[in-house]
Write a structure and sequence with these properties.
The complex is a heterodimer of chains A (435) and B (289). In chain A, 46% of the residues lie in helices and 17% in strands. Chain A is of the alpha/beta class and 435 residues long. In chain A, the strands form 4 sheets. Chain A has a 6-stranded mixed β-sheet, sandwiched between helices. The N and C termini of chain A lie far apart (87 Å). Chain B is mainly alpha-helical and 289 residues long. Chain B is 74% helix and 3% strand. Chain B has 11 helices and 2 strands; from the N terminus they run H-H-H-H-E-E-H-H-H-H-H-H-H. In chain B, strands 1-2 form a two-stranded antiparallel sheet. In chain B, helix 6 (164-174) packs across helix 8 and helix 9 (218-233) runs parallel beside helix 11. The longest helix of chain B is centred in the first third of the chain and has 31 residues, at 3-33. Chain B is globular. At the A-B interface, strand 8, helix 8 and helix 9 of A face helix 1, strand 2, helix 9, helix 10 and helix 11 of B.
């Protein structure tokens, strides 16, 4: 009797253990097959006057996300994670950006936010710093030591504005007179200060260094004032593309024959106002290269991106956005790709681990070429990715711009930084002066 | 300032004054004369530019015809605004102003939804190149604005002073009750004023589409300039608005050339404040702003 009871007990224990083992194996299998998703945010002007800097960026980010998800997800720490994007329209207003940041972080637990920057960066950084969420700005001047998770540099501003004086000096050593203007907003003033410092460091005489009001409707007097200083180069620094078109039109109409240089020139818009031969003669040097430029080679990430963009968002497609691809379509994705790469290097989505991994990497692949985390002497913290800067000129044969040079920034800056930083400080635009 | 720069600045000032006058004259009629403070005047201007974008840049219609198409289109919008907003709020300038502020946002959003947001619309310059006028280089498209402004302003002056309907409109502005007793319909006159104001804003936007950044928000900054012109000129004076437009054009252009464009905005507003302190009725007005 006792023996029977013992064998019954043994049987029950065995069955229970078998059940536990089966359940634990099953639950383990379930956990392994469950799809884990990491959310990212897109917090930028999707409507209003600044939408041109934000809205198109959604397409590039979505293409990247679709590619990653098609491969099964982002491989981090031996596991694959699907990516999902949530959007919020901040209309470039600080208070709305903070509302958006809260929603994206608290409701959707986003780990990374693509943004334009500027006032929204100022408004959101205390909250995002507390929550340890990455905020990727298009405007490197947003980077500050007290914003440890704010990263930038995917957009070439202001490195392009600092390298253009070097580029033109190399190509035209006989030229001397540099005129520069941009709108009188915070970013215009800061970027122009960095450009003026760089131009002085390269031996240019600054003959015009002023800003125009963002409300300017008529650029004829602005251009008359610039031309009165008899410049060899007219640089438009970070002047917004719409103003760039109108200023170049005036330069053409008022007979300027020197070199035109800018952060970004929307070639097609300018061509509506100015003969392409004039644009070629004055170089119209700028960055934000076209991704169908043969310079990238075949096959290339850039050419594939164009093909994919046209297939998803081009004319006649279900996602037709009724416009051509712009530089902003790929401008935001540089930083998203950087963050994803950082997570893979770190094997974790922990932001401190990602930053540490990125900063210790000797070379980081980016859309514009291999880069390094840099910027301590410009912004007080190494939170700027610094890939090579492409410089393009307008060519009449293709009626488009074509890359002419691909310049590295860090070594050049190291050799010129004392002069440049002194000028920036004299203008009150160094990071610790703008707090 | 060198002589060539001086001549260029004079020429720039004349063009700038013509632009301001063309934009502001419609507002001067609606607001200054008929007390209809149309906050959406800048958006009427914007829609005039979009008419050119649609018919000329997209549709391939000749530029002059596209400009003409803007006149009835935006005049109709003016009539609609009078009927739906200004007539119900008559006697309360602020109510009309606030209601049309709402209309501003509706029109901006609608334009953004229909034609897209982002950078400026691509509108080819119909008359590329420049004219050399006494050593000054002025774009042909901008040269065109000067005679166009003269014709538009001359026509309005003729209409208000020589045509019976125009005289009736002025009578309504001076004393609505007395005008009504003479058999003049106030409703018809306010509708007429808004129709003309719309047509003028529309044609101004259409003419300037190739030289202006065409976006849904292009009217926003122009509205402030237009109000400054109307107030400085004198609330009920078309002639005053024209004078103020040219004065502002000269001040703005010279300050920009000699100093910078940011200072020019400040000086322009300071000029308005100075005029209103010295002469509260404006340059040629008879009623206080």
């Amino acid at each position: 009797m006792k023996k029977e009871r013992l064998s019954g007990l043994f049987l029950r224990i065995s069955l229970t253990m078998a059940l536990i083992v089966t359940l634990s194996v099953m639950s383990g299998t379930t956990a392994q097959s469950a799809e884990e998703t990491i959310n990212i945010g897109f917090l930028a002007a999707l409507s209003g006057p600044d939408a041109g800097w934000g809205l198109p960026g959604i397409t590039g980010n979505q293409i990247f996300i679709d590619r990653v998800n098609a491969e099964g997800g982002l491989l981090v720490g031996g596991k694959r994670y699907k990516l999902k994007m949530y959007k919020f329209d901040d209309e470039a207003i600080g208070s709305k950006a903070l509302q958006g940041a809260r929603q994206l972080v608290l409701e959707h637990d986003v780990k990374f936010i693509s943004a334009i920057g500027g006032n929204p960066a100022d408004a959101t950084h205390p909250f995002l710093t507390k929550k340890k969420v990455f905020y990727a700005t298009l405007i490197s001047t947003d980077i500050m030591p007290d914003r440890p998770y704010l990263i930038g540099g995917g957009d070439v501003t202001p490195r392009i504005d600092m390298l253009r004086p070097l580029y033109h000096k190399i190509n035209n050593p006989e030229l001397k007179r540099w005129a520069v203007t941009s709108q009188d907003d915070t970013i215009g003033k800061t970027c122009q200060a960095w450009e003026v410092g760089s131009a002085i460091a390269e031996g240019w005489d600054i003959v015009y260094d002023k800003h125009f009001s963002g409300e300017t409707e008529d650029f004829a007097p602005v251009v008359t004032a610039i031309l009165a200083t008899k410049p060899d180069v007219v640089s438009l620094n970070l002047t917004y593309p719409t103003y760039v078109t109108l200023i170049i039109e005036q330069l053409y109409l008022q007979g300027f024959k020197g070199i035109i240089s800018a952060n970004y020139i929307d070639t097609e818009s300018v061509m509506q106002k100015v003969p392409i031969e004039y644009m070629e003669a004055t170089k119209c040097a700028n960055s934000f290269p076209l991704f169908d430029d043969p310079w990238w080679g075949e096959p290339s990430w850039q050419h594939d991106f164009i093909k994919e963009w046209n297939a998803k968002y081009g004319p006649g497609t279900p996602g037709d956005v009724h416009r051509k691809i712009t530089g902003i379509d790929w401008d935001h994705v540089i930083m998203l790709k950087l963050w994803a790469h950082g997570a893979q290097l770190a094997g974790s989505f922990d932001p401190d681990a990602i930053l540490k991994a990125l900063r210790s990497a000797p070379s980081i692949p980016t859309i514009l070429g291999p880069g390094v985390m840099y910027g301590k002497e410009m912004w007080g913290i190494d939170n700027m990715i610094s890939p090579p800067v492409p410089i393009a000129e307008v060519k009449a044969d293709c009626k488009c711009k074509r890359i002419q040079a691909h310049l590295r920034f860090e070594q050049w800056f190291e050799s010129r930084k004392d002069t440049i930083i002194k000028v920036v400080k004299d203008k009150g635009q160094y990071y610790d002066q703008r707090k | 300032m060198e002589l060539t720069t001086f001549i260029q600045t004079i020429a720039n000032s004349v063009v700038s004054g013509s632009i301001y006058a063309t934009v502001a004259v419609g507002l001067a009629l609606a607001f200054g004369v008929m007390q209809m403070a149309n906050h959406a005047h800048g958006e009427f201007f914007m829609l005039g530019a979009y008419v050119v974008y649609v018919f000329y840049a997209l549709g391939g219609m000749p530029f002059p015809l596209a400009v003409l198409a803007a006149i009835p289109t935006i005049a109709a919008l003016g009539l609609l605004t009078e009927r739906l907003i200004f007539r119900p709020t008559r006697g309360n300038v602020l109510a009309g102003f606030m209601a049309t502020a709402g209309l501003t946002w509706i029109l901006q959003t609608a334009a953004g939804r229909i034609w897209g947001l982002g950078f400026m619309k691509m509108i080819p310059t119909p008359y590329m190149g420049s004219a050399n006028i006494a050593g000054a280089q002025i774009g042909l498209q901008r040269v065109l604005i000067v005679p166009a402004a003269c014709i538009l302003l001359g026509f309005l002056w003729f209409f208000l002073h020589r045509v019976r309907l125009g005289k009736g409109l002025r009578a309504c502005a001076q004393d609505p009750e007395a005008a009504a007793l003479q058999g003049i319909s106030i409703n018809k006159m306010t509708a007429l004023a808004m129709g003309i104001a719309g047509a003028y804003a529309g044609v101004a936007g259409a003419l300037m589409a190739p030289i202006h950044a065409v976006t849904p928000y292009m009217g926003r900054d122009l509205l402030i300039t237009a109000f400054i012109v109307v107030i400085v000129g004198g609330m009920a004076s078309i002639e005053g608005a024209v004078l103020a437009a040219f004065l502002l054009g000269f001040i703005h252009t010279f300050v920009t050339t000699i100093f910078d464009a940011t200072s020019a905005v400040m000086v322009g507003v300071a000029f308005m404040a100075f005029i209103l302190i010295v002469k509260p009725t404006g340059l040629m007005g008879r009623v206080k702003a």
